[in-house]
Amino acid sequence: MSSRDDILGRVRARLNRTPENAVTGRAAIEAALAMKAQGPRPAMPSQKSALVERLVEKSLGFSSTVERIGTYNDAPAAVARYLAGLDLPLRAVVWPQLAHLDWSGAGLTVEARGAVDRDPVGITGCFCAIAETGTLMLCGGPESPASVSLLPETHIALVPASRIVAGMEEGFALARAELGQLPRAINFVSGPSRTGDIEQTIVLGAHGPYRVHLVVVEND
Amino acid sequence: MKLRAHRFKQNALEALANPVLQASMKKAKGKFVDKRAIAIKEIDDFEATREAAKEIRNRVIENLDLWLEKFEQAAAARGAHVLWAKDGAEICRLVVDIGRKHGVKKAVKSKSMLSEEAGLNLALEAAGIQPVETDLGEYILQINDNEPPSHIIAPVVHKSLDEVADLFQKTHHTPRKTDIPQLTREAREVLRQHFLSAEMGISGGNFLIAETGSVALVTNEGNGRMVTTLPRVHVVITGIEKVIPTLEDLATLMRLLPRSATGQSISNYVSVLTGTKAEGESDGPEHLYFILVDNGRAEVVGSEFQDMLRCIRCGACMNHCPVYQTIGGQAYGWVYPGPMGSVLTPLYTGLENAIDLPHAATLCNQCGVVCPVKIPLPDLLRKLREKQVERHLRPWFERLAFRLWAWVASRPALYGLGTRFAVRYLKWLADGKGSIPRLGLAPEWTRGRNFPTPEGRTFRELYAQRGRA
To answer: Which of B52, B86, B272 is opposite residue A6, by nearest beta carbon?
Structure first.
C-alpha cells in the first residue's frame, strides 16, 4: 500500500468516514470554499486618506522610511534624492513594469530585470499595500521579479495611494479579481529583514534588505 | 533528532546546574511575554479572533482526509508534486531521492521542525548532499555539531553571545568578534554564497491552503524567501494537520501567529507560494514538491487528544511556562519543548518514551490562557498522566506509594492517626521557623523552595474541636 493510501486510510478510519458522510463532507468543503468567510477584523478607516496615514505610520513602526510624492513622474527624482542622501550608489535594478519612468533623467542608472547578488538597490512597485500592518503585497511575475525586493541591500517600493487597502483580505480579493489565479509567489513585506536570534538583540538586514523605503504616489 | 525525553529528570538537573544556560534563560525571560501582551491589544476583539482561529483549525481536522484531498488536487493542478511520508525515515528517503533525481549537491534549508523530527540533515550528508541551515539560530546550532534547538521560534535562546562568538571564529576562521550586528553580517555573507549556489531549497510550511494548493511561509530573516526563490528545486515538508481552507482563513490566523510568537503585528515576510516558475519569470523553482507527513499525527485524529492538532507552532506556551523558563528547551529531549512538546512528544513518540514530560508542568494554565487556538494544554497533560497510570507505566515505587496511600485513606482511623503524626513531625522539623528548608523523606521537593510549616493540627482535629464548641 502506498503511504498516501495508508495515511489517508488511517485518518478516514479514525473519522469514521463512510461513502455517505464523505458526500456531505465534500459539500461542506465546497460551501466553505465558495463562501470565503472572514474572521473578526480590527476596525479600519474607510477613507482613502486615513488608510494612507495608517500605512505610513505602521511602516515606520517596522523600521521602513516613507516619502510621499505627487505623481509617478516625481518618482525618479525622489529615489535619486533618497539614495544620494544616504550616500548609496545611484545604480539600481527595477521591475520591468516600471522601466518606462525617466530614471536616467534623474541621474540614475537602472536596469529592468531580476536582481543578482551584487545589485546594490532594487526598485519595485507593489500589487497593493495593506494599511492594517503597513505591509507591501508583491506579486511575482515576468514584469515584477521577486528577487528585486530580496537580494539588494536597499529596497525602494513605489506605492500608489489608490492601491492601499485595509487588510490582507482585500489584497487576496484583488488578486482573485485581477489575476484570476494566484501568481507563483505572493510576498508580503513589512520593513527590512531582521533577526533577534543572538541574545534577543534585533539586528536589521539578516538576509534580505537592510532598508526599505516606501515612496507613496498620491496621484497615480 | 534523537529522542532523549526519557532522560528528562537528568536533563533538567543538568540544565539547572548549567550557569551559561541559566544566565541566558534569565536574560530572555519575559521579552516575548511583554511584547505579546502589547501586540494583542491592537486586536479589537482578541477573544473572538482566537475563537475564530480555533474553529478554522477544528473545521479542517474534523474532515482532515477530505481537506487533504482538496489540497492535493489544487497543488497538483498548479504543477506541484504531492508526496506522503509515514515517518521520519520516509521523509529522508523522499528528500534524498528528489535530490538525486535533480543532481543536487547542496540544499539550503529554512527552519523546519519536521526535518528535525526526521533527522534529515544527517541523512542528506550520508547521501552526499550538503544541508545548510539558513535561519541564523539554526545555522549556529548546525555549526555546533548539529546541536538540537531549544525553542521552535528562537532556537538558540539558551546560548550566550560568547558561545556564538567562539563558534563563528572557529568555523569561519575570522578574528573573534562579539558585536552582534557584525556577527549577523558575517553569517549573512557566508549564507549568501550558499543561497546562490544551492540547487535545492527545503522549507517547512506554516500553513497549507486547500483552496489554492499553496504553502504559506512566515519568517523575519527572509531566509524563507531565499530558499524558495533562488534554487531550482523546492521541497516543502509539513505535517498533514497544517491544512487550512482559504486565504481568508490565512488572514485571520496571521493576526494571531506573529503576535503570539514574537509579539509582532506581522512577521517581516509572509509568502504564499503556489506552483512553479511561470513562463517568462526570471526566478522561482522549476520543481516543487510537497511532502505531507504523518509521523504519529493520524493516530491523534479522532482521539481525546485531537485538540492538540490545532497547534500553529507559535511558541507562546513555552514562552509563558515557568518550567520552560527555568530549564530551557533541550531538557525536554525532543523537537518540541515546553507544554506543547510535553503533549506532542508522548503522542508522536510513545507514552512510554516520554514518561516524565506530562509531569514537567505545574498545570498553572498560563499555556492554556495564551494559546492562540485555545488548546486546553493542562487538560491534555492531565489526560496523559491518567493514561500512564492506566497503562501501568509509572515507576513501581510511585505505584506502590499510591496503593499504600489508597489503603490508608480508606481507613479513617488509621488516616487520622497518620496525619496527626505527620503534622507533628513536620512542626518538629521546622523547629519554630515558618518553613522547612529540607524535607528529610522527600529532599527533591525542597531543592528549589522551602516547605511551609503546618499550623499544628490537622483539619480533622480542628473540625472535631469546633463541632464540640
So the answer is: B86
